[in-house]
Specification:
With 258 residues, the protein is an alpha/beta fold. The protein is built from seven helices and 13 strands. Pfam families: CoA_trans (PF01144).
Length: 258
């Protein structure tokens, strides 16, 4: 294949993701999620997944599909408020959850991708994030079965900082608007969100793209993520329902309103 990283289908791209794999998944809410790749994993039935993503989709879309099917056992996220099934599984002890401040999560992914094992940040000092005790997993009777450990603290400039570890995962799933056969990616507006960071963190990164172009067609200054971080590229088929861009909370003006 040389430098041509394209694969024929999403199903082929995720075929070697095993049960129990760790995944970094791009997206923020439903914006920029790799829906086609998620759907392929859902169809395949791959289970025991340990997922790192800003959130877990909604009840019937995105990562919410894998969650509802019982394919996710652990989530590392910063926000989980739009998914009732997520709350149910977490509170009933079916799902382990590590909640991380959003900026810290972004930097942990970036650090992992850059080969930085850990870093200090003031975010979370003076809270259970640093002191430990956040429920990671509940028992069936509602007690805390697994709690977060305390983090190492060090003072810089008179302020306490927590030691946070970089995140690397077995695989990463991301979505871009344009990609070339070498894996160079361009993201559209806010869909950029966590996608470049998730891509950096994955040892094997799979990108679904809306538009596939030939090498050399992208201006190097337009590239948001270089192909060194991407191992596989899949073009989203036009009209693929799994790639639909849904809106989490659609708010429209009432007819006749001023």
């Amino acid at each position: 294949m040389g430098l041509d990283k394209t694969v024929a289908s999403a199903a082929e791209a995720v075929a070697d993701i095993p049960d129990g794999a760790s995944l970094a998944v791009g997206g923020f809410g439903l914006c920029g999620i790799p829906g086609t790749l998620i759907d392929a994993l859902w169809q395949r039935g791959t289970g025991g997944l340990r997922v790192v993503s800003n959130n877990c989709g909604v009840d019937d879309w995105g990562l919410g599909l894998l969650l509802a099917a019982g394919q996710i056992t652990r989530m590392t996220s910063s926000y989980v408020g739009e998914n009732k099934e997520f709350a149910r599984q977490y509170l009933s002890g079916e799902l382990e959850v590590e909640l991380v401040p959003q900026g810290t999560l972004a930097e942990r992914l970036r650090a992992g991708g850059a080969g930085i094992p850990a870093f200090y940040t003031p975010a979370g000092t003076g809270t259970q994030v640093g002191e430990g005790g956040l429920p990671w997993r509940y028992a069936g009777d509602g007690s805390v079965a697994v709690a977060s450990p305390p983090k190492e603290t060090r003072e810089f400039g008179g302020r306490p900082h927590l030691l946070e570890e970089g995140i690397t995962t077995d695989f990463a799933l991301v979505r871009a608007t344009i990609g070339d056969r070498h894996g160079n990616l361009v993201f559209r507006s806010s869909a950029r969100n966590f996608n470049p960071l998730a891509a950096m963190a994955g040892r094997i990164t799979i990108a679904e793209v809306d538009h596939l172009v030939e090498p050399g067609e992208l201006d190097p200054d337009e590239v948001h993520l270089p192909g060194i971080f991407v191992q596989r590229v899949v073009r989203v088929a036009p009209g693929d329902p799994a790639a639909e861009r849904r809106i989490e909370r659609r708010t429209v003006r009432q007819e006749g309103a001023a």
